Target: Chromatin accessibility complex protein 1
Amino acid sequence: GGKMAARLSGGENRLVSLPLSRIRVIMKSSPEVSSINQDALFLTAKATELFVQYLATYSYKHGRGKEKNALTYSDLSHTAEECETFQFLADILPKKILASKYLKMLEKEKRDGEVGEGEEEDEDEDEAVDEDVG
Model:
């Protein structure tokens, strides 16, 4: 591991471009992680880097940004929505919508939620009555 660490600290010929200190912080934020082996840290960083490259390349190839020779946020969010591999990112890369539209959605969710909760309470009461009868 010594040689690898030495090469990592070198400026331009670094094997990984993501900051290892930040990745260590993220890994340590998991309660199951007590100590992080240097090789595990490096491999996690490299895997993350390759994953981000894959996400970017895929989104660019399948997105509209190609026309402008650019990768756009909407290309990334479209990938998260449409491609099964990346669907776990859908919450992190939501489609951009206008604030006004979002507020309307929140209001609707709140209304629907209140109705939904009411129905659930009724069902619970019915079940309790059924148990008493039986």
Remarks:
- Residues 118-134 have pLDDT under 50 and may be disordered.
